[in-house]
């Protein structure tokens, strides 16, 4: 297992094990996080663990032009079912993502240190949030890291308190990313939810090419 030092650097992603685990240790400084994302690496760990860094193979991604919008979702969008904003309340979005109960997880991986680190990325303009509102109440949203120079958006987490709210926000985000000519949305690992929206798995090598 590769243990990080104070130096802002990572081993080659090919060193990752079969689960995608690449390294442990280091910190969640802005410089280290940006170095990680620019090389296809992200942190994912629980409070009782050291910082763990992953670069899975295959990688789940969405090509914006391949976005799938179901008939029912198109109807909701036409009816303006929800109001969607960007960067209006990043803190509430990441707090909600941390608190939402997920059947596949016993506890959250969005620790207090993670929240503070991504709030700092947001303040510096690297992390963005999408808020979904119903009657002025936050009912869904998501956040991620936007590598604008590489035309890649790295999704981190989403939440929904009302049926279809997070999906509505994600679709709105992808349409916005299309306008910015973003080539790829990084979804990290497979989920049925993301697959239903058109996300697919590609090799890590292919994914890394988009970051060069």
Automatic annotation (TrEMBL):
The protein's Enzyme Commission number: 2.3.2.6
Keyword Transferase: yes
Main localisation: cytoplasm
Subcellular location: Cytoplasm
Cellular component annotations (GO), alphabetically ordered: cytoplasm
Alphabetical list of Pfam families matching this protein: Leu_Phe_trans
Annotated GO MF terms: leucyl-tRNA--protein transferase activity
Catalytic function, reaction form: N-terminal L-lysyl-[protein] + L-leucyl-tRNA(Leu) = N-terminal L-leucyl-L-lysyl-[protein] + tRNA(Leu) + H(+); L-phenylalanyl-tRNA(Phe) + an N-terminal L-alpha-aminoacyl-[protein] = an N-terminal L-phenylalanyl-L-alpha-aminoacyl-[protein] + tRNA(Phe); N-terminal L-arginyl-[protein] + L-leucyl-tRNA(Leu) = N-terminal L-leucyl-L-arginyl-[protein] + tRNA(Leu) + H(+)
GO biological process: protein catabolic process
Tagged with keyword Iron: no
Enzyme superclass (EC): transferase
Keywords: Acyltransferase, Cytoplasm, Transferase
Family according to the record: Belongs to the L/F-transferase family.
HAMAP family given in the database record: Leu_Phe_trans
Function of the molecule: Functions in the N-end rule pathway of protein degradation where it conjugates Leu, Phe and, less efficiently, Met from aminoacyl-tRNAs to the N-termini of proteins containing an N-terminal arginine or lysine.
Protein name, as recorded: Leucyl/phenylalanyl-tRNA--protein transferase
Taxonomic classification: Bacteria, Pseudomonadati, Bacteroidota, Flavobacteriia, Flavobacteriales
